[in-house]
UniProtKB/TrEMBL annotation:
Transmembrane stretches, start-end: 6-27, 168-189
Annotated ranges, domain Type II secretion system protein GspF: 59-178
One Pfam family of this chain: T2SSF
Record organism: Williamsia phyllosphaerae
Assigned keywords, A-Z: Cell membrane, Membrane, Transmembrane, Transmembrane helix
InterPro entries (UniProt xref): T2SS_GspF_dom (IPR018076)
Classification via PANTHER family: INTEGRAL MEMBRANE PROTEIN-RELATED, POSSIBLE CONSERVED ALANINE RICH MEMBRANE PROTEIN
Protein name in the entry: Type II secretion system protein GspF domain-containing protein
Subcellular location: Cell membrane
Membrane topology: Multi-pass membrane protein
Source organism phylogeny: Bacteria, Bacillati, Actinomycetota, Actinomycetes, Mycobacteriales
Keyword Membrane listed: yes
Length: 198
């Protein structure tokens, strides 16, 4: 019976030895937001596009155009509630279109613009070139943003499942060995040694 206590003591010492110290930093799948008003969707922060805010901006732009507003006025109105990158693109296009600039020039974006602004710019220029209403293109952009957000959320959930399996295995395997296998082996060893079989 004293062998069981020795094994249990050794397992406790090993467990205390491998416990992370207080200096270890715990990481999450998504870092906590810096402010309360910041987007919390899968770690989206101010330096990244929020796909749902972009989709809402596309939808609002489409609603304004469907109600009969000119493109310049609709872009100006949407720029007040759109995310920062999209708002800059809309504000610039609204000002240039109000001054009578060519739509191809008004909807140009810089090379380092986010994907949402590039997509909006390409769709608006294509629509202006064809002379058609951009409402349908805006609706498709909103659907694409939401579908991409759903795919990203599913991928993050799958990554979380894979990432959590390692620590779970690291915790449960020693516990299984200590509580399930070691007592059986010690009990059998005690019977074999006491019975004089060896």
């Amino acid at each position: 019976m004293s062998g069981v206590w020795v094994v249990a003591g050794l397992c406790a010492l090993v467990g205390l030895w491998i416990i992370p110290g207080p200096g270890w930093r715990l990481y999450r799948i998504a870092p906590p937001p810096r402010t309360v008003r910041e987007a919390r969707w899968l770690g989206v922060t101010r330096d990244r596009d929020d796909p749902f805010a972009n989709a809402a901006g596309y939808d609002l732009f489409a609603v304004c155009l469907r109600s009969g507003m000119p493109v310049a006025a609709a872009a100006e109105i949407v720029s007040h509630s759109a995310p920062d990158a999209m708002a800059r693109t809309l504000r610039r296009a609204s000002e240039l279109l109000g001054l009578g600039a060519d739509p191809a020039h008004a909807w140009e974006v810089p090379a380092d613009a986010p994907a949402s602004s590039v997509s909006l710019s390409a769709m608006a220029r294509r629509s202006a070139r064809a002379g058609s209403s951009p409402v349908r293109g805006l609706r498709e952009l909103a659907e694409t943003e939401r579908a991409a957000a759903q795919d990203n959320a599913a991928a993050a959930a799958e990554r979380a499942g894979v990432a959590i399996s390692g620590p779970l295995g690291l915790c449960f395997l020693p516990a299984f060995v200590c509580l399930g296998i070691v007592p059986v082996v010690v009990g059998l060893a005690g019977k074999v040694l006491d019975g004089g079989l060896l």
